[in-house]
Known about the structure:
Structural class: alpha+beta
Number of strands: 4
Strand content: 25-35%
Number of helices: 2
Oligomer: single chain
Distance between the termini: 13 Å
Helix content: 25-40%
Amino acid sequence: MTASHAEIYDLRGLKCPLPVLRCRxxxxxxxxxxxxxxxxxxPLAIIDIPHMCREDGHTLLEATPTxxxxxxxxxxx
Length: 77
């Protein structure tokens, strides 16, 4: 699944630690190899989401700044 075909998970408006907690829960229900695009507005997400990916063994394919925050493209392992 490419970035354009990844499921989009909108977590804008949520503050730390909710984006990581919800992202982790969503990824736990996905199959290995599935991809997820996560939209956030919390400034700490640029630290927290990559850390969660490293900690849980997922692949962070891309982290892109957006007008409202950041977009993360993650492949579940």
